[in-house]
Please model this.
Amino acid sequence: RPGGGSPRGLLGFTPVPTSTADDFTVPEGYETQVLIPWGTPIRPGGPRWRKDGSNSAEEQAEQIGMNHDGMHFFPLGNTREGSRRGLLVLNHEYVDQSLLFPDGAEEMTADKVRKALAAHGVSVVEIERRRDGDWHVVDSRRARRVTGSTPVDFSGPVKASHPSLRADNEPLGTLNNCSNGYTPWGTYLACEENWNNYFGTQDPSWTPTASQKRYGVSASGGGFRWHEADPRFDLAANPGEVNRFGWIVEIDPKNPDAKPVKRTALGRVKHEGCTVTESRGRVVAYTGDDQDGDYIYKFVGHGSWRVQRALGRSPLDHGTLYVARFDDDGSGEWLPLEHGTGALTTAGGWADQADVLLRTREAADAVGATKMDRPEWISVDPRTKDVYCTLTNGSGWNSAVSPRKPNPYGHIVRWTERGGDNAATTFEWDIFLLAGDPAYDDQVTLDESNLFGSPDGLAFDDDGRLWIQTDVSNSSQNLASKGYDNIGNNQMLAADPRTGEIRRFLTGPRGAEISGVTFTPDRRTMFVNVQHPGEATTAWGTPTPENPRAVSNWPDFDPEGRPRSATVVVRRTDGGVIGS
Ligand code: FEO
Ligand code: CA
Ligand code: CA
Ligand code: CA
Model:
C-alpha cells in the first residue's frame, strides 16, 4: 500500500507535544542527524568553520551560508541510487549580523558587507548516505555557492540593458532567497523576497518614487546598513541596482558553470517561492508576494515547455503573468498583467511589458487583485491538482478570503482551478483551515495534538500528505497578549487533506523557524531546515558579542560556540516512509 501506516488515513505517527526547549524533537520511532550547519565547507577539506565568527568573506564563500530556507533534493541516478545520493540545493534567506561577525552588528565595514554577501544566496552540495546510515557531504565538481556577489544574467522582457537596471557594477548576486521552486527540466528556482531591506542612503536629497514606496524601499533600509560601507547598495549613488532584485532566479545545479538567470517574465515582487506544475505540457508557476495586503500570482507558459526547450528557449521567458482576484462568493479569477490589456495601456501610463513587470505590484493594484494576509508558500496536491497557500498572518482585509480581522494566527486557503486545469483563468476557493488556539478563538478547531500558528512552509509529498511549517515571529512567541503562550517553539505538522486530520510532527529549537522540506525519491529520508536558532526573542532575550548563546546554542551546544542554522535529516528507525 503506498505510504503504508494507518489504513484509514495517511498519518501513522504519534504527535509530539509543543515545546519551549532548546531542542529539536521528533515522534517516537524517528531519528535525526544534523547536516550542513552554517559554515560547513561545501567540499570536504574546504575552510573549516570558526566558532567565534572569525571566518573571512573568502572562507564564507566556500562554506554553507546562513539562515537555511527553501530547499530541494535532486537525486542522482534511479530511484534506488537517487535515494542514497544527490544534490541538496538550499537558500540562505538573510544573515543575523549579531551572530555572523565576532564583534556583532554595531560597526559596518566593507569587509563585513563582503562576508554578509557571501553568507547569502544558495548552496549546492553533493551528499550521500553511507553504510553507517548517516548522510555525508562528498567531494563534487557540482558543489558551489551562488552568493550576493555571483555574476548573474537577466532574461525575459526586462533585459540587463534596460535603462532602469543600469548600475556601476555588472549584474551580481541574489539576496533574501526565502522559499524556492524546481522545474520539470531539473533546475532550481531561488526567490528574492525582502530585497528592499539591503538598500538605503545617507544622501538627504534622495526621495523614494511611488513605485519604490510600494515596495518599501527607504533611505534607512532594513537594518543591514550595507549602504554605509558599500556604494553598491546606496540608493542615491547607484540607483539602478535596486531594480535588479525582486525576481525569480533559475539555477542549474548539475552545471556548475551555468550562470544563474533572473527570469523577469515572472514579475518583480517579494517572491516567497515559485511552485511549478504542468498543464497539458505548459508550465504553470505559482508565487506569493509575502507582505500584508499583497497578492498571489500565477505564470502560464506559452506552448509546451519541451518544445520551448528544444527550440533553445526558456519556458519561463514566454508566457502570461496573472494575479488572483478572490470573490466573496467562493469563485475567483486570474487577471492578466499584460501590457495593452485592461488598465495596463500606454495611455494609462504603462510604457511596455518591461514596465509592467518592473512595477508588478502597481500593475496588480491597477487590475483589481485581492489583498491577502501575507501569502507565503504554495503547494499543489499531486492527486487532485488543488492548490494550497499559507496566509501566515496579517491585518485581515475586507473580503471573505480574509475571515479574521486582525489575523494573528493565519490560515490556509485552497482552490480548484476550473476543470482541474492549473492553466485555467477561473477557480473555486475555500478556507482549508484556520490556525490558532481555541482558548483565544472559538472558531479554531485545533487541539493539543496540532495547535499551531503562522503557517509558512507548505509542501505535499508524493503520497498526498501536506506538510505545514510555522514561522511565529520572535516578537509574538510565548506571549499571552498575542495568543501564542500555549503554542511554544516553531514546529512542523502533517495533514491528510482527505480526512482533515492534522498531527504535530516536530518542534524546533528556541528562536528558530522551521522552513524548507524535501525528500529522497523513496520518501524514507526527509530533509528539514532550522532557520535562525538563537534569534532575539521576547522570552529569552537578545544575543550579544559577549553571549551569542543568550537564546539558543543549538545544534552544537558548545559552551564557546554560537547557534547555527542547519539542515536536519529525519528518518524512521525502521527505515519506513516518513509520516506513514
Ligand atoms: Fe521569508 Fe515570507 O518568509
Ligand atoms: Ca524566514
Ligand atoms: Ca518563509
Ligand atoms: Ca515567514
Q: What stands out?
A: Residues 30-572 form a domain with the Neuraminidase fold (CATH 2.120.10.30). The chain is about 10% helix and 30% strand. Residues 376, 392, 456, 471 surround calcium ion (ligand 4) (CB under 6 Å). The radius of gyration is 22 Å.
